């Protein structure tokens, strides 16, 4: 079995990959199997960010139109770039988990929570943007 680690790269044998690359390749295959609803708990664990975006997120985007997906994650790449249609921001409650915000990424409360929890807040995003883009 082989996989392509980046969109324009050559195929590589899975057994020659790092543990994270092997996990990403297997996750991509599993995500494409079947049409039943699928619950994923932190599918990004043990994956480097590049693999999360190029393999896992791209696969999530391609299958979400014909398969119901429920994904639990702490990774902004999964939430933001996969085109999540409904986001639940959950915090630990006294006895049970509590929903802090719910809706699309365009919902103000969800956007604010995603910004804070997943990205380190608006200032962190602006700082990274200025450093990476230079504006």
Question: What can you tell me about this protein's structure?
Answer:
With 135 residues, the chain is of the alpha+beta class. The model has no long low-confidence stretch (mean pLDDT 83). Helix content is 44%, strand content 17%. The chain contains five helices and six strands. The relative contact order is 0.10. The protein is globular.
Approximately how much helix is present in the residues? 40-55%
Strand order of the largest sheet: 1-2
Distance between the ends: 44 Å
Please indicate the percent range of residues in DSSP E strands (runs of 2 or more). 15-25%
Q: List unreliable stretches of 5+ residues.
A: none
- The rough form would be described as globular
Structural class by helix and strand composition:
alpha+beta
Q: Quick one: how many beta strands?
A: 6
Largest sheet: 2 strands, antiparallel
Q: In total, how many domains does the architecture comprise?
A: 2
Mean pLDDT: 83
Rg on CA atoms, Å: 17 Å
What is the ordering of alpha helices and beta strands? EEHEHEHEEHH
Total of DSSP H or I helical runs spanning 4+ residues: 5
Essential attributes:
17% strand; 6 strands; 44% helix; 135 residues; alpha+beta; globular
Summary?
This protein is an alpha+beta fold and 135 residues long.
Give the SSE map.
Blueprint: E1 2-3, E2 12-13, H1 19-32, E3 38-41, H2 49-63, E4 69-72, H3 76-81, E5 87-91, E6 98-103, H4 108-119, H5 122-133
Parallel strand pairs: 3-4
Antiparallel strand pairs: 1-2, 5-6
């Amino acid at each position: 079995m082989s996989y392509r680690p980046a969109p324009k790269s050559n195929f590589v044998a899975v057994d020659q990959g790092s543990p994270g690359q092997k996990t990403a390749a297997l996750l991509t295959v599993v995500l494409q199997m079947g049409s039943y609803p699928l619950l994923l708990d932190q599918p990004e664990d043990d994956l480097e960010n590049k693999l999360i975006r190029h393999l896992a997120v791209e696969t999530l985007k391609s299958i979400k139109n014909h398969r119901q997906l429920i994904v639990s994650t702490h990774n902004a790449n999964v939430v933001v770039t996969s085109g999540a249609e409904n986001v639940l921001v959950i915090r630990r409650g006294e006895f049970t988990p509590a929903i802090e915000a719910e809706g699309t990424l365009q919902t103000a409360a969800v956007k604010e929570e995603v910004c804070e929890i997943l990205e380190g807040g608006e200032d962190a995003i602006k700082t990274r943007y200025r450093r990476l883009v230079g504006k």
